[in-house]
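Protocol step 4 of 6: structure prediction from sequence.
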Amino acid sequence: MNLKVLAARFALVVTCGLMATAPAAAQFWQCAPYAREISGIDIHGNANTWWGQAAGRYERGNEPRVGAVLAFKATHRMRVGHVAMVSHVVNDREVLLTHANWSRPGRVETDVRAVDVSPNNDWSVVKVWYGLLVKAPNDVPTEADRAVAAGYEQAGVDAFAQDFEIWGNKRACIHPMMVQGDGPFHKVRIWYKQFYNPRERAGEFQSRVNGRMVTKGTQQDPWTEAA
């Protein structure tokens, strides 16, 4: 650990399976492309499809090995699953993972702790640590610095739990109530459609909204009467 940085981590419980592979050179990417790049496993598609796609092509099992890919099942909180490569086996119930897009979108993390907490020691349920870094003001962290880091850790846990509550209960608002000055909200919705349709249609949605949008009621386009 860098002496100027205090690491605070908390666990996220997920369901998973293991399949064997070999490591390769790393790149900065999302979880599935990154795992494919560093592991050499030639599987494409969302992470939650890797376990099924590996059948008959790669060895699968419930025993961790260096170079294996940990394949997480999809859940209502993690809809497309997750994949991570085993970089070190600590013991039969603990490994270190190298993966991307976990603690922060698109970021790569190395040697992240993962612990098997399944009743039968079969890696069907694991805890994977979520990284939270707190910069300390002193070269050598003091007890006060560690207390601050612990506070940030608890705040991160609480905020993450609140996000889960939102993700588990949110519903689409197809016809939102809007008022004057809200801006071209419908244009934003059209733009986002490119991420929920086949990639070849992206240009179609972009062409409908690309350009300069000025919100009514701003200095550039003021109201001619009271809103």
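Step 5 (inspection) to follow. Residues 1-11, 21-26 have pLDDT under 50 and may be disordered.
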